[in-house]
Amino acid sequence: MNKVISLMGPTASGKTDLAISLKKNFNIEIISVDSVMFYKEFNIGSAKPDSKTLIDFPHRLVNILEPCQKYSVAQFYQDLLIEISNIHSMKKIPLLVGGSMMYFKTFFSGGLSKLDEISDDTRKKVADMLKNNNLAYLYSYLKKVDPESSNKIHFNDKYRIVRVLEIYFSNKDKPSDIFNKCSENVQYFDNLNLSIIPNERKILHNNIEKRLNIMFEQGFLNEVSNLKNKYTGLYLPAMQTIGYKQVNEYLNGGYDTHVMKSKMLFATRQLAKRQITWLRHLDATTVYSSTDYDNIKYRVSNFLEDI
Q1: Which element (helix H / strand E) includes 209?
Q2: Which domain holds residue 210?
Q3: What CATH number is attached to the domain comprising 256?
Q4: Count: domains in the chain
Q5: Which three-class secondary structure string do you get for 52-110?
Q6: Same domain (yes/no): 119, 246
Q7: CATH number of the domain that 287 lies in?
Q8: Is the pLDDT of residue 47 over 80?
Q9: Which pTM does this prediction carry?
Q10: Which of 49, 53, 97, 236 is most enclosed, with most CB atoms within 10 A?
């Protein structure tokens, strides 16, 4: 048994409710793939299920980190494999649920994103190279040090050029050699990938705005304020995420309430747009609307019928 189901979608698309509905109908266990839900005490702003829901419908990889802890993509991948193995040993099927696309990408690529563990000094070194020269220079540099990698990257693909150079400066081997070595050790699963995307962008935007209003009604400002007071002077990784970042700046006197909420709304909508773009370019995924539960249930049932 090596089946895994991934339920992905932009923020506020109804993934959690759908996952719980699937758990009620199938022999599955939920694993959260949300970079903020990993953290304890970051509850309201992450739209984390409430404590009763988490008791009735446990989500693995939720509340596994203290607010001050750093958590790498590589560590996530290792933790995820452990959870998947444990669930399979129970004769159940893992259901990965979330909107953190980088983490899904890590899983789908077999952990190759662990190469994203780059030191701050290395990131600065490559950033300075780009700032003091241009993208053409970086691409030319990559072409000299690792022709195989450069041949697989478009000369205007800034993200990948920078990333591969960061890998180059962080390792003794060429990035192409590292990628080839990693691909030999990829762990493969029988995946069913489901993407939840609302039929109309307006519906998603309304859901996002509604969710933000609910967050403030639930005491989001107090949550951020309490975190700031409790961990004064300490770096909290999740405080840099959308929502927490804007409220933190507001509490620091950066702007008024109206501007803060406007910035949150804009940033969340932009995040949703990026998530949808990523999902639409993902191979081997079936796209549904969040209200298309009958077809999703039918697809999951077919996927699991030969177990």
Answers
A1: helix 201-217
A2: 201-273
A3: 1.10.287.890
A4: 3
A5: HHHHHCCEECCCCECCCCCCCHHHHHHHHHHHHHHHHHCCCEEEEEECCHHHHHHHHCC
A6: no
A7: 3.40.50.300
A8: yes
A9: 0.79
A10: 97
- Quote the CA–CA distance of 302 and 288 in Å, as a whole number: 16
Same domain, 106 and 133: no
Same domain flag for 62 and 192: yes
Per residue in 274-294, pLDDT (tens digit) is 999 999 888 778 899 878 989
CB 272 within 8 A of CB 266: no
Q: Which residues of 6-39 are buried (b: 16+ CB within 10 A; e: fewer)?
A: bbbbbbbbbbbebbbebbeebebbbbbbbbbbbb
- Of residues 117 and 262, more confidence is placed in 262
Q: Three-state DSSP class for 14?
A: coil
Q: Would you place residue 226 in the very low, low, confident or very high pLDDT band (cuts 50, 70, 90)?
A: very high
CB 218 within 8 A of CB 48: no
CATH code of residue 170:
1.10.20.140
